[in-house]
Design brief:
Elements: H1 15-27, H2 34-47, E1 51-55, H3 58-68, E2 76-80, H4 86-93, E3 97-101, H5 112-118, E4 123-126, H6 138-148, E5 151-155, E6 163-164, E7 167-168, E8 175-179, E9 192-196, H7 199-208, H8 217-222, H9 242-253, H10 255-273, E10 279-280, E11 288-289, E12 295-299, H11 303-316, E13 322-323, E14 339-340, H12 345-353, E15 354-357, H13 365-384
Parallel strand pairs: 2-3, 2-4, 3-14, 4-5, 5-8
Antiparallel strand pairs: 1-9, 6-7, 6-11, 8-9, 10-12, 12-15, 13-15
Helix pairs in contact: 1-9, 2-9, 3-4, 11-12, 11-13
């Protein structure tokens, strides 16, 4: 059995990415151009969206989604605290105030009941997060949004390929924002995507990602005559490059393969963790089909100190691991400046007790067995520590 380190996550690349990347380099078009347009079209088709708009990363996607909804100073946006800090940061960058609410104790997704209690006359939007690829209860969130006149901006950073009640994430009647970071299922290095059912929104999003320019570089270069662009509003430099898009096109063609292997590995973890009385695997409600971007484990009542000892022991044994989910409201950056709605007890308990185990497409059964052996040893050792 090999004793080489097992990473927490690892992108899966082969000659298909190399070929398309080389073609892009040789074309001379390496900034946003024809491959970005093709990636957008293919991504929209894959997730069942009317439009997809590629951007530099998911943080930019969340910010632009709030911007096209007109959200800014004086507005409140409801977000779960139990999420990567970028979710709340996007609200701050838009000039609005994040309102932190609690999550469901088993799914770690935002609790719709807590969302409802947090709504005030200043609330303009809610950002539900599909935690580590598990779809949130979109039906209840959308019903609340309709009742109170709120925008929904779905943080689907982790959820490409996931489905809710048979529908792909990204196909519903609101903006959804995806990430292609190296820990995600579909990887372009950096990069993000916004899906929308509204062609007019897509036009504006494309304008805003490129300094507010009225016509893209690609359209100008394809024109037979001179075209002078205009700048009807202030925009940003949030473009994806054709190099990233070339990698994304190759990755998208293999998405079904990636999902099948990840789900098989997750099922194997589920079965083996039945022998770990201290550990609880991820809950998957009926109607949800996660992509298993990550495999999250809860250690029953361990608390942060003992959980951290387990993570440290795993790392020292050559098994990649890290804390499971962060409680954004406990980070120094958000000690002030946000509003907390109600108790965040489930958030704080999950932040203290959860960790991530390695899961990636190329992971072998032998590697997974090593992870589980290391986890058993780490848990046992953690009980003996002072």
């Amino acid at each position: 059995m090999s004793d080489a380190p097992i990473p927490l996550a690892k992108p899966s690349f082969d000659e298909s990415e190399e070929r398309l990347l080389l073609e892009a380099l040789r074309s001379g078009w390496v900034t946003q151009g024809p491959r970005v347009a093709e990636f957008e079209r293919l991504f929209a088709e894959r997730v069942g969206a009317r439009e997809a708009v590629a951007v530099s990363n998911c943080s930019a996607a969340l910010f632009l989604a709030l911007r096209v909804h007109g959200i800014g100073p004086g507005d409140e946006v409801i977000v779960p605290s139990l999420t990567f800090i970028a979710t709340a940061n996007a609200v701050e960058l838009a000039g609005a105030t994040p309102v932190f609410v609690d999550v469901e104790p088993r799914t770690y997704n935002v609790d719709p009941d807590e969302v409802e209690l947090a709504i005030t006359d200043r609330t303009r939007a809610v950002i539900p997060v599909d935690q580590v690829g598990l779809p949130v209860d979109l039906g209840r969130i959308e019903a609340l949004a309709r009742e109170h006149g709120l925008a929904v901006v779905e943080d689907a950073a982790c959820a490409v390929g996931s489905r809710w009640r048979g529908e792909p994430i990204g196909s519903r009647d609101h903006l959804a924002c995806f990430s292609f970071h190296p820990r995600k299922v579909l990887v372009t290095g950096e990069g993000g995507m916004i899906t929308t059912p509204d062609p007019d929104q897509a036009v504006r999003l494309r304008r805003l990602r490129h300094q507010g320019m009225s016509i893209s570089d690609l359209e100008r270069h394809q024109s037979e005559g001179a075209v002078i662009e205009e700048y009807p509003e202030i925009g940003y430099n949030f473009r994806m490059s054709d190099l990233q898009a070339a990698v994304g096109i190759a990755q998208l063609a293999k998405l079904d393969e990636f999902l099948a292997r990840r789900r098989a590995l997750a099922a194997r973890y589920d079965a083996r963790l039945a022998d770990f009385p201290e550990a609880i695997g991820p809950a998957v409600p009926e109607g949800s089909e996660p992509n298993y971007q990550s495999y999250i484990v809860r250690l029953r009542g361990f608390g942060e100190d003992r959980r951290d000892r387990v993570v440290d022991a795993l790392q020292r044994s050559g098994v990649g691991s890290r804390r499971g989910l962060m409680a954004s409201h406990l980070e120094p950056a958000w000690a002030t400046g946000a509003r907390r709605a109600g108790s965040l007890r489930h958030t704080e308990e999950a932040a203290a007790d959860t960790l991530l185990l390695p899961l990636f497409t190329a992971m072998t059964d032998e590697q997974q067995d090593r992870v589980l052996q290391a986890l058993r040893s780490a848990i046992d050792a953690s009980a003996e520590a002072p």
